[in-house]
Amino acid sequence: MYYLLAILLLVIFILFPLLVPQSFMRFLLFTGAISLSFIVGERTFLTSIGGISPTAFKLFAVMIAGIIILGAEKRTINLAINIKFHLLFITYATLSLIWCEDVIYGLRNIAKLLAPPLLLLIFQIALPSEQEIRKTEKWIFLGGIFIIILGIIADALGLKPSQYHSIPRFTIPHLNPSPFSFYMLMLTLFSIVSFYYDRKNIYLLLFFLFSIFCVLPLTRITIGALLISLMVFLVLITRNKIIKTIMFLSPIFLIPFFIFLSTSISILKERMFLNPEIVSFSTIFQNPKLFLEQLNTSGRTTLWSFALEKFFQKNPLWGSGAGATQHFFYEKFGRGVVHSEYIRLLCELGIIGCTFFIIVFLLYLADMYKIWQRTKEITTKKYALTAILCLTSYLIISITDNAIDYVFHLSMYVFAFTAFAYQCYEQENSILY
After folding, report:
1. Alpha-carbon span 337 to 335, nearest angstrom
2. What's the domain count of the chain?
3. pLDDT tens, position by position, 350-380
4. Mind listing the pLDDT tens digit for each residue in 236-265?
5. Residue 197 belongs to what domain range?
6. Positive or negative CA dihedral for 307, 407, 233, 425?
7. Which of 101, 167, 213, 387 can bridge 324 by disulfide, Cβ–Cβ 3.0-4.6 Å?
8. Which positions ≥6 away from 408 have C-beta within 8 Å?
9. Per-residue pLDDT reduced to its tens digit, 179-201
């Protein structure tokens, strides 16, 4: 029964974008945070080849439809040339299948690496004009509001989505708090940029709404990414040199302030420290060693050291191959990933792959900054600045989490705004010349 339902969903997810690509891309942006587990439950398909989760099933269908759409579009080659460095990175990662531990796990990882540039190209083709892109905005915001209402209803019904010991962390059913917070972060950043350029109070209200629910999951890296991205936003829009200097120096004051909050508010103390009852703000001055020992990294530092020793040190230049770390942890422990994209890339694709990854994102940031500086169209500026903030957040999240894994909750929005900026700028130039 569940397999028949899964096949039906697969067919729908392939036919929908082929028949009405614009509506499908809006549907994806509206339902980004909702997992297919709502329909089929928390089950794994095709366990004989490592297993495919409902989210992976959805990704597989979207990628098949996307490849068909791109194959039938004349502009695909020219658009692909614009992101050639990203595609070269994917090519290098694919070559690592030659020396990887397990081809199935390697292919699963390659699929997640390929999804962002694929989605970027599909967005540019499915939404070719500024008018079409503007129509899409409301679906992005409505999706966020819908997800929040869904989470509140689930909480009111006693469906505790997730807990960290005794700390309730807000999210929706079938979704961990981290990807929920990443999704809210994207909407928060888009809201504040929309308010800055469109000057509509509704965007300011949405900014406060989404920022609250961005913090409620208590995902530390998301809170850090939010603060840093907002500082980047203020630095970019402010012309006053004194204010810019203050923004650059603000981390000096924000870090002590964040430590003060973490040691003063009980719910944050429980999230931040192993034994919160023995830690206070004065501890950092009186006994800094104890303070560091009590920091709760959720086992990340131990896992990083182990992964680097086992996978990176053997082949530091090119790594142990795509999917190597996940294959090891799933085979040995049934689950587990290296909670840092940079550590995972070093382990699997080596120094070459990790450096390549960072360069690709820096090139996107450079492109978005150039578009933001050069364009005279407010709409193009809005998308370019949103993309800058989202790309910045993505790089920050990758420090302690696996940003690549969250295709529909994070990557899709990062590259949607990037695609919108590219497309609007291209249309602007075609009109001018």
Report:
1. 7
2. 1
3. 999 999 999 999 999 999 999 999 999 999 9
4. 998 877 776 776 676 666 677 777 777 777
5. 2-237+299-432
6. positive
7. 101
8. 28, 32, 33, 55, 58, 59
9. 999 999 999 999 999 999 999 99
